[in-house]
Write a structure and sequence with these properties.
By secondary structure, this protein is of the alpha/beta class. It is about 45% helix and about 15% strand. The chain has 11 helices and 9 strands. It has a 7-stranded parallel beta sheet with strand order 1-9-8-7-2-5-6, with helices on both faces. It has a two-stranded antiparallel sheet with strand order 3-4. It is elongated, with a radius of gyration of 19 Å. The two termini are about 25 Å apart.
């Protein structure tokens, strides 16, 4: 795998959300070879597509108070954006008691799944790169630690569903690398890129031997992402788009040579 590259730093079941995107295949042998080299792009949700901090942190504190724990300052909770809910509350409440954890998770969901997700904010530039990548050369997915139904709700709230082949969530029963393996099975032989802001995104990509790109506008920093094996780091969505298109152009040229 290539060394980590810093790019222009200045600047509980899987329930697919079916897309309305056209999947027209290019005609002829050359077109088929090219289509077989379609790039599969998998986006994390929180910290990559959108900033969920306001609603998510409010829901975490709501759950803590419900379970008799004091609320935490927002600054101390940012590192909990990305992991699964059972991991979050096991750490915050210093417990492995399944019943207590379930009470916290239920309280969190009661707030976030009804109102909190509406406070999520799409990062500047994300809508534009999704629109650019929504063509027959790319197949776009979401793979998130969220439960698939709420992930789909967030994506539809942003009116982005038409960009994605599927929106997939781990919930409490699956790991992100399992989602990526499922995508690999559906898209055999195609180059896959996992894009995310936390170590678990990079680690999941390595399990399935996918390229992994760390984004620096989310909640993980360059040290975390590099240590987790990021092949490239990008500072903003435009840098991400340029990285994707540059690599895709090389693969396309090789396929059609």
């Amino acid at each position: 795998m290539p060394a980590t590259l810093m790019v222009a730093l200045n600047s509980q079941c899987t329930c697919p959300l079916q897309s309305t995107r056209s999947k027209t295949t290019l005609g002829g042998l050359r077109g088929n070879l090219y289509n077989d080299r379609m790039t599969v792009i998998v986006f994390d949700l929180d910290g990559t597509i959108s900033n969920p901090a306001e609603g998510l942190l409010a829901a975490i504190n709501h759950a803590l108070v419900t379970c008799g724990h004091p609320p935490r300052e927002a600054a101390t909770l940012h590192r909990f954006i990305g992991p699964s809910l059972d991991q979050i509350f096991a750490d915050l409440m210093d417990t492995q008691d399944e019943n207590e954890l379930q009470v916290a998770i239920d309280a969190y969901r009661a707030l976030y799944y009804t109102e909190g997700y509406k406070l999520d904010i799409v990062y500047d530039g994300i809508r534009e790169i999704l629109a650019t990548l929504s063509n027959d050369e790319y197949s776009l997915y979401v793979a998130t630690a969220k439960r698939s139904d709420i992930a789909s709700r967030v994506i539809e709230h942003f009116d982005m569903g038409h960009h994605f082949t599927a929106v997939m969530g781990c919930g409490l029963k699956r790991k992100k690398h399992e989602l990526l393996a499922e995508i690999r099975q559906a898209q055999p032989g195609r180059h896959m890129i996992m894009i995310g802001d936390r170590a678990n995104d990079m680690q999941a990509a390595h399990v399935v031997e996918a390229e992994c790109v760390g984004v620096l506008w989310g909640f993980g920093d360059s040290e975390e992402l590099t240590a987790a094996g990021a092949h490239a780091l990008v500072a903003n969505p435009q840098d991400l788009l340029e990285h994707i298109e540059r690599g895709h152009a090389v693969r396309k040229a090789n396929a059609l040579a």
